[in-house]
Amino acid sequence: MNGKSPNAARFLFIKAWLSLNLLLLPANLLHSAGGTLTVATFNAEWLGYPRNSGTWYGSRSSQIQTAAADIIALGADIVALQEVVTDTLNGDALADLLTALNAQDSAGTWAGAYNPKFSFWWDPDFYNYPAQRQAFVWNTATVQLLSTQVLLDWIPAWDNRFGSGRLPYLLQVEVGEEPFRRVVSLINLHLKCCRGSDDRRLASMLTLLDELHDHYAEDALIVLGDFNVADRGGAYGEISEWGFYDDADNDGTPDFAHVAGAEADLSWSDIDHVMVSDELLPDWERVPVSLRNGTTASSVSDHSLVHAVLNFTPSLPEQYDQWRQAIISTNPQFARMDGFGEDWDQDRIANGLEFMLGTSPVERDASGSLLTIGLDESGYLSVSYRMRKGLPDGSLILGQSQGLASQPGWTPVDMTGPDVTVSQDPDPDFERVVLKVPAPAAPGSVFFRLEASLAD
Asked: Domain 317-452 belongs to what topology?
């Protein structure tokens, strides 16, 4: 074995009645699994008041049932809705939509909230002008509500910004899987419609972006909705003029990126959009291109559901690089030998394995603390190790062999069966894995190893 190679296999044996083997080998990295968030915007066109709809000619109940089916079929975690009619005269379309969602979707429990502000909220006439509201619905299985808020509620009555009262509506949630949970704020917009109103949309968005720069500059933001960019549509017409792509904080990155909706100025279907702040751009870029910008037609509306996917789980190289940089910040010398397959502290445990198992790459570790075994009264071996949360499937594999010949046959252990338990480690970023297996007939006849892998 060539011990000088940074990718060399390293073996560590502990003298006991059963030998242990820790092995580090490079291999192709599997993509991250889990930790994704699908967000959508959907102008549901007079949802709850179909007599004003130019698309739906059925009953109010069938309109809401069909909208619920469209949302469930999409599989989104959060949907920002526009034109949801909710008032004291015409009923609560959001409550009825939630009832339909929960009746149709046995896998999730849906919740929602609507904007208390609507056009001409200061002088309502629900008979002639049913209250169209912005609203959110979300799947509580994947989304934890933190708060809702009307933004810019200091704008006075009779002001014609934001469609004369349809103020931005913010939903703050916690999403993602441990240990990569994120707090994200979504801002639902329904701007003034139609050609010739670009000046009102510009005034509205300059006001909003000033608010976001002043009070939400470090937050993970998603701005989405019916932007109604009728004069110059797509991602680079009016949207660009509003200043979304400026670099107000002078960090060398545009403040927002366009992630869903038509990029070109089209004759139709180019007014619904999703934007993310630069804090979320890596999470969008981590998603396969085919999933980044989606449009799904709906039979209840003249608008489509426009959707994007974010992945909050960093790839394994990203996770390792973050860990490596943190070590270097306190131990600059580590940078001289910080490769995944290198061994800075010369304890025969490579840096990459130290990262996955939570030991220090700059202090020599006791080998027996990494993979331990015990024998219980029933004659079963207990094989135990701790593992960093969020590792992609297949990046750390427990293998088993019946001997240590020059070419031993290592078999991956099935870690999905009833003989495997996973519990929380005292360190919240790690979990403890325990495998129960029958003891071998003779000492030294069964070997275990951990195999870690990272793409070059």
From this structure: Immunoglobulin-like (2.60.40)
150, β-bridge pairs: 169
Phi, psi for 374 (deg, rounded to 5): -150, 165
- Average confidence (pLDDT) over 26-45: 65
Least confident among 38-52, 116-130, 239-253, 428-442? 428-442
- The answer to whether the beta carbons of residues 296 and 74 sit under 8 Å apart is yes
pLDDT tens per residue across span 109-133: 999 999 999 999 999 999 999 999 9
pLDDT tens digits, one per residue of 340-364? 989 999 988 889 999 999 999 999 8
Q: Where are the domains of the chain?
A: 36-313, 317-452
Q: Which of 132, 27, 153 is nearest to 81 (CA)?
A: 132
> In a 10 Å sphere around its CB, with 0-12 CB exposed, 13-18 middle and 19+ buried, how is residue 263 labelled?
middle
The pLDDT value given to residue 183: 97
State whether the Cα torsion 402-406-407-413 is positive or negative: positive
Q: Which amino acid is at 11?
A: F
- Cα R_g (the chain), whole angstroms: 28
Supply the DSSP string of 160-214, one letter for each residue.
-HHHHH---EEEEEEES-TTS-EEEEEEEEEPPPSTT-HHHHHHHHHHHHHHHHH
Q: Which CATH architecture has domain 36-313?
A: 4-Layer Sandwich (3.60)
pLDDT for the residue numbered 110: 97
Task: Enter the tokens of residue 54.
Answer: 């130019």
Place of tokens 């059963």: 18
- SS3 of residue 78 by DSSP: strand
Long-range pairs for 151-155 at CB < 8 Å and ≥24 separation? 151/187, 151/208, 151/211, 152/207, 152/208, 152/211, 153/117, 155/207
